[in-house]
Predict the structure.
Amino acid sequence: MVDVGTAVMTVEMIQASQVGLKAVGAGLAVGLTGVGTGLAEMGIGAAAVGATAENRDMFGLALIFTVIPETIVIFGLVVALLLLF
Amino acid sequence: MLSPRQMSRLLIAGTKEQMGAVIAELYRHRLFHIEDFVGQEEYSGFRLGMPLEGATEASNDLITIRAATNAFGIQGDGTPRGRPISAAELRRQIQTELPGLDAQADELVTRRTRLETRAKDLETRIAEIEPFAALGIDLDLYRGYESIAVLAGHIPADVAIAAPHEKVFSSGKRGGFIAVFTPVTERDAVERQLLDAGFVAARIPDETGSPADAIARYRAELESIGKEIEGINRQLANLKEIHASFLLAADELLTAEVEQAEAPLRFAVTDLAFVAEGWVPTSEVPTVREALERVTNGRIHIEELEVDYDHEVVPVEYNNPSFAHPTELFMDVYSRPNYREIDPTLLVSIVFPIFFGIILGDVGYGLVLLALSFLARRFFGSEGWTLLLDNLRNASVSSIIFGLVYSEFFGFALPWRPLVFSRHLNIGGEAHGHGPDAASMLIIAIWIGILHITLGRVISIVNHSRMSHGSHRTKAIIAQTGWLAFMWGLLIVIWSIFPIPFMPDLTKLGGVVALGLGPAGIAGIVLILYGVIAIAQENALEVVELPTIVSHVLSYARLVAVGLSSVAIAMVVNYIALGMFINPSLENLTPVGIVLIVVGIVVLLFGHVLNTALGILGGGLHSIRLHYVEFFTKFYKGGGLKYHPFGMKRLYTTEE
């Protein structure tokens, strides 16, 4: 009798799917932290543009404020790099 | 070097007759930062000075000149045009030429405005008549009836009207135009029907004869007006060409005069004497003293005052070697240093380009940015832009050096292996070795962070020992050692648990002492505890900031992460353009293949332009951010007052 319901997995297949899952994890790490950074910069960026419109001298400081949440996505990028390499 | 220029506080007192000469001399030397007189207590009996003679005339002339400058559209871009003119000669020219020039400019501008109004008027008329032209009825036939009403206007489509009437319709691209002639008695009924069909009434123009003729007449007039305006603009341009340098020079001279004439408003005076207080760089005090004594024949009192640093705001002038000069721009964007704290400009000017190079280490991009930093100077001549481009130049040189180390050229490998760490990714199956040394580089980046932050804390200790007083000084210094102890304690604990490459391995040191930790781990715990206590004794709330130690150190990982993402973009662009479009087409050249090659070249150019822009943003913003957020927050107070000496940099005129 042929066992129809059971597929056979070789070691190579398992390894390949592990590599794939790693890539998925790396993608999630960058993607989700990117969303987080975007949400954080949304409010800051709007306020920063407003402040710059009021006073041109604010530009430098406004830019700094806007890039502060960048750290989150950098952490995501670091995690992704560690996963991949 | 690491501190601003030393300043001395000068008090200058003299009789009122000498005030004019003293002001002119101070203005000429451009060294004296005036401290405004605001009725301080020790000056009882003094009052604010009055402007010198001639202030009003100079102001009036200045307004005339600025009006003419505006009319001609002259913009001083800060570069001298030709030979600077002497003040005496210029003053004569202002007397003789300015009134005529001003009248001329005024007349031309008024005439131009009048012509422009007339041209607008004509354009409206043409627009009004144009729809009637299509109906082909003379314009006087629309008016002057007693028993007939005329309705004319735009309508989407021709319409059947159930009333006695006569109509003409013409259809155009944007709906039709209709004119309906109907007995006055039927007017309301006809109008209602038309409105139901989407009729919008138009004004019947107040003209005679054929509409086409009227339009042609007005067009001709418009054309001649256009020519006339062109002629006026040419005249203005000619005048601008001739008089631009005169006007700019006159503006400069009169601005200087007005500024000098109004200086007494910042001095304290009595009926017979005046007193001015201000700041001069200590090294320049003898110059100022000698100059003032010379113009007053020694009949002036100049005194160097004691400086009370806690209550007086000392103006701050940078004192850096010339290569660090461009970095002052970044400092001013954040905040000018306080007079007594360490000025980190020099450190930033060294570390910033290095960070930029670590992130964007690519010979190709470095060369592009280097060229850009020189080309852009032609278009952006202002002082701020020049400093920014100087920074870009320094950063791109560093980028080229790191590119040689990383062996990268627009994402391609140079003919040698990377000297230290490889950032080459395996993209498109063309494996270069074993892929990037991401983990090793991240650890090096963390090391950079640890050292940079330690440096920041050490500077903070120096600053506190210079600037704070009494018990607060001791507390603040202990707190700073606490932050250092906590960070290094944490590191030692981690090292004693996990062996990490490129970092000291303390796991095998001694046996287990307590809590499952070896002697090194226990030492680390002790440091951490000391740190917490040292921080809390200054301000217990600061303890909640402890996690920032970890996040700030890890934040330096961006040096590698952002750089690798930039390399990845470059390599992906190369793979798409060359690997997928250009190379396969070159093997077997067909007409479609040529199109594909063009597409490949476009992708290549577009991708690398984008990546260059991202490289400036990534390399520049992240490097400066590491300074502002991670480095400066450890020690930098800022808020210094900019040293603004009384005087002006003359570009168009010479001294008398």
The first helix of chain A runs from residue 11 to 54. The helical segments of chain A are 11-54, 59-67, 70-84. Chain A touches chain B at residues 59-61, 63-64, 67-68, 70-71, 74-75, 77-78, 81-82, 84-85 (CB under 8 Å).
